[in-house]
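INFO  loader      accepted 1 record
INFO  loader      residues=82
INFO  predictor   begin
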Amino acid sequence: KGEDMSEEHTTKFSKLSTANQIAGKIMEIRKGAVTAIVYVQIAGETMVEVSVTIASLETLKLYEGKAVTLIINPVNIMIGCE
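INFO  predictor   done
INFO  writer      dumping C-alpha cells
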C-alpha cells in the first residue's frame, strides 16, 4: 500500500513561484541513453511518471526509495529534493 506523505514535506519548497507541489517517493527508475523515467508514488497508490535527463538524475542524486517533491507548472512536472 502507498505511504501517507506528510504536509511538512509537501510545503518544503514554499518559496517557489508555483503552488502546486506534491510529496512523493521514487519507486522505480528506468534509465535510457539520454533520459530516465522516474516513477513517483504520491497519495495512496497513485503513480506519476516523470521524465528527466540522465544529468539531472545524477545531479539530484535520485534513487529508488528517495522522498521527493513533484513541482507542477502548467507545462511541466519537475522533481525537487534536498
